Amino acid sequence: MKGIMMRTTLTIDDPVAASLQDWARRSGKPYKLIVNEALRLGLRELERPRAQPYKLVVSSLGPVQAGLDLNKALAIADGLEDKAIAQEIMLRK
């Protein structure tokens, strides 16, 4: 990316500078090119929209019938589904 070049002085934390120097050495690219690439990548990451945290909406199921064990909700749902299927089959006859 060619354009206006600006010369500036930055204070880079030692661990970050070491990582940049290591990356430059391993890639065979000049240090300043690696710094610019890292800055570009970091800026893109900063500009990327962040996902909003998921918000769970709590709803009341109404009063619970006496004797109904909600810990067995799947079994209850299966039973209700079986009844609905049986009624549908009876209507088809």
Structure overview:
Helices cover 55% and strands 0% of the residues. The protein is mainly alpha-helical. It has a domain at 14-47. The termini are far apart. The model has no long low-confidence stretch (mean pLDDT 87).
SSE order and pairing:
Elements: H1 14-27, H2 31-47, H3 73-92
Helix pairs in contact: 1-2
- Average residue-wise pLDDT: 87
Structural class: mainly alpha
Biggest pleated-sheet summary: none
Oligomer: single chain
Summarize the structure.
The chain is mostly helical and 93 residues long. The protein has helices at residues 14-27, 31-47, 73-92.
Question: Which characteristics define this entry?
Answer:
single chain, 93 residues, mainly alpha, 3 helices
